[in-house]
Write a structure and sequence with these properties.
Elements lengths: L13 H20 L9 E6 L2 E4 H28 L3 H23 L5 H21 L2
Antiparallel strand pairs: 1-2
Helix pairs in contact: 1-2, 2-4, 3-4
Length: 136
């Protein structure tokens, strides 16, 4: 008699691959947003004084939105496996929320350089969560 082996469809590298793809989308979006204002073309939508959305900005924002949302879904789906304490999870969520809030507020207010504080806060939260999400 032969033994039958149960073959499971293990997707061991799936989180790591998906995190890598989301990171590439985010980096591509940031690089597109770094195109100098002279190369962007005309402003399609004016957001506030000194801020507007051109077609190039729209492409960069779309890449960031897709990559960031996909990454957020990956992190939330893997939260039970990350083994974070409730206080650490609350702190990281608070830090990420504060960072996103400051990024958005810097666009609509006169506090132009607050985007750097918001990006730093969000970056710290991501530097903790993304490697934990990518591991098996």
């Amino acid at each position: 008699m032969t033994e039958t082996e149960t073959v499971s469809h293990d997707v061991g590298d799936a989180p790591r691959t998906q995190v890598a793809v989301t990171a590439l989308l985010i980096v591509a979006g940031v690089l597109v947003l770094f195109v100098p204002a002279g190369g962007e073309g005309r402003v399609l939508v004016s957001v506030s004084e000194g801020h507007g959305l051109s077609a190039v900005d729209g492409v960069g924002a779309a890449l960031l939105a897709v990559g960031g949302t996909w990454l957020e879904v990956l992190v939330v789906r893997r939260l039970p496996y990350l083994a974070l304490r409730p206080r650490a999870l609350f702190g990281l969520g608070l830090l990420a929320g504060l960072g996103i809030g400051l990024l958005i507020a810097s666009v609509f207010s006169g506090f132009f350089w607050w985007w750097a504080v918001g990006a730093s806060a969000l970056g710290v939260a991501l530097l903790v969560l993304v490697p934990l999400t990518a591991r098996r």
